[in-house]
Design a protein that fits this description.
alpha/beta; single chain; 188 residues; binds flavin mononucleotide; six-stranded parallel sheet; globular; 6 helices
Length: 188
């Protein structure tokens, strides 16, 4: 048995709706995670719209919580919906809040992305934009495999279970790669 320390992952989902395919994909990632990894999911539903005047008075409690969760995590896993060819405003807003100084917590974090979208590109354009923000914030994005669940409305059952074997395989591979990527970054 390996005596390597477990890797803690924080999941951040950019959709707030109950029946979200991205939230369901995140649950699938938790289901398929390898041994040696623990995943918790952030609640970003109470984060207000970014306002520099509010920030000047201190981070609102839901933002402070997110910042602490990001700091404490060994790695991040974004579930990234595609809205009008980009990431959702909900996700961008949470990232914008958490990214503000001092000690922006994303720096140095290994991070992976999964997407589920109604269109044929499966969220590829949103992931491209998220990756740009990740680079600016000094995260270490995992490149492969790309998890782009296209025509998501046909790939989950009524209970939100991902029924597509190809997508399930890719998510399993992504989680295994995230574990080794995070171990390399953290020397755990
Ligand atoms: C404002 C808005 C914009 C959207 N734009 C896109 C898009 O650019 N590409 C796409 O594939 N789907 C688009 N969709 C459809 C979403 O992929 C679909 O609603 C999906 O279920 C959202 O993710 P969720 O299930 O996690 O909430 C859009 C949906 C909304 C509400």
């Amino acid at each position: 048995m390996s005596d390597a320390k477990p890797i803690s992952v924080l999941g951040i989902c950019g959709s707030l709706r109950k029946a979200s395919f991205n939230a369901a994909a995140l649950r699938t990632a938790i289901e398929l995670k390898p041994a040696g990894m623990a995943v918790t999911v952030a609640d970003i539903s109470q984060i207000p719209l970014y306002d520099e005047d509010i920030r000047a008075q201190g981070f609102p409690a839901p933002v402070e919580t997110l910042r602490q969760q990001i700091k404490a995590a060994d790695a991040l896993l974004f579930a990234c919906p595609e809205y009008n060819y980009s990431m959702s405003g909900v996700l961008k807003n949470a990232i914008d809040w958490a990214s503000r100084p001092p000690d922006q917590p994303f720096a140095g974090k290994p991070a992976a992305i999964i997407s589920a979208a109604a269109g044929m590109a499966g969220g590829a354009r949103a992931q491209g934009d998220l990756r740009r923000s990740m680079v600016f914030l000094d995260m270490h994005p995992l490149n492969k495999p790309e998890v782009l669940i296209f025509q998501a409305q046909n790939k989950f059952d009524a209970d939100g279970k991902l029924t597509d074997d190809v997508a399930r395989g890719l998510i399993g591979d992504l989680m295994a790669n995230l574990l080794s990527w995070a171990r390399r970054m953290s020397a755990k």
